[in-house]
Please model this.
Amino acid sequence: MSQTKHPLPREVADAYVDDLVALDPVTGTYLGVKESHSRLPDTSPAGQEALADLARRTLARLDEAERQPGADRDIERRCGRLLRERLTAELAVHEADEGLRAVGNMETPAHAVREVFALTPTGTEEDWAAVAERLRAVPTALAGYRASLELGLERKLYAGPRPTATFIGQLTEWSDTDGSGRGWYEEFAAAGPDALRAELDEAARGATAAVVALRDWMRDVYAPAVEGAPDTVGRERYARWSRYFNGTDLDLDEAYAYGWAEYHRLLAEMRTEAEKVLPGAATPWVALAHLDEHGRHIEGVEEVREWLQGLMDRAIEALDGTHFDLAERVRKVESRIAPPGSAAAPYYTAPSEDFSRPGRTWLPTMGQTRFPVYDLVSTWYHEGVPGHHLQLAQWVHVAEDLSRYQASVGGVSANAEGWALYAERLMDELGFLQDPEERLGYLDAQMMRAVRVIVDIGMHLELEIPADSPFHPGERWTPELAQEFFGSHSSRPADFVESELTRYLTIPGQAIGYKLGERAWLLGRENARRRHGDAFDLKAWHMAALSQGSLGLDDLVDELSRL
Model:
């Protein structure tokens, strides 16, 4: 009699992706699954519980898979370790009912619903028919999200007043983007074909009406109910979220001290570089303000998009064959302008599984038409090449050698953000930032990530500001002090600083992953270099590191050190 073949961890992980796409069409569209493009997920409490049930069933299947012959092979072991860690972290967040108070300026169900349209194919009339169907699904999706928030209110699980106010402002902008009375969904649908004009317009108006209804409820019911609630989350919730975003249980006090150590190191470097830009400048940010007015800059929105495209194209030409070996389809990346109403920070979206939609970087203009170069160069090394694009596109490229899960939905935020920050540093190490303007901009971006560690942990845990700090030594962090500190140690404008602080309050523990992730990548590289000595091959290490899929930070250091 033939024995029943039990799946190994990679098969369990890939079956999970298939089941997840069936429940979450937004994820399906990110992966390029055609059947997903006309649908939206169930964002209600029942929809959240369905995702949790899938995670529990998958963990039970993984238990069995890890007992099978062959499960101890490295390729199976890595995948199983990632799947267990990710699903366990996701369940911890779900079981704490965090999904019932998901309000903020990014990463809410309402943001996911809107942002997926920017990735939905629109090349054919058939594509636009799917768009129309998806537009008709917006009211139900937003109603499900509202039902989750209503249950949160019943259980006295409140979002903070500040993220709530910001979100209401975003909903207002989405419902009337330019004061003409036409909302974002209507503007999006306007590009559709004439043959579907009436259908698209009707569906888009319905979507905008749903945004208005959600905005009015948030303003009239939710905001008054959460008035007086804390904007910060406290140590217990913060530890849960930091595990989710970093893939490990962090020593938060050690991480806070590391943030301060990096702050002092970077401040000294910035002062040296600022002297080259503006001799006698009182602070590095005085020199950066000088560059805002007198430094090199790009005029025009389309012009800056083209300039960023050229920057990435040149980086690919310089790095491919020398420090990376890139497949042809990984070499393609597009520069885009982010839709109105986005958060202030630039971002990246990975290619679809078949690369029919390439990787894309997105620049929110925040109404600007003049863009200083110092603020863009290292940021696009981070978002594009050799940052997010090379890692996430390489994962997609080698997905068949890994698993769909490792190459896509199993991503750990701190792994990806750590690589992107490592990529900025790598370009500095390789001599791409010899211009004082660009190098001071790079150090300013690095300082922002160190400040993130300080204020994100500091304000949520209400830690004491150290005695050697030049800023309010001995006091306890508050969101107000955090915003003041961030603003005085950043070249970014006030609206960016405001958006960033709201982001940290909305998704606690995510912003620290940039610096802590970079530290993990650097430690893994140093350990591998020591193992190999003079035989260490940086190009080979880069490609092996980028081809192993995602891992939490502790597991990442372990695996990178072995390469």
Q: What stands out?
A: The chain has a mean pLDDT of 95. The first helix runs from residue 9 to 23. Residues 241-514 form one domain. The chain has 23 helices and five strands.
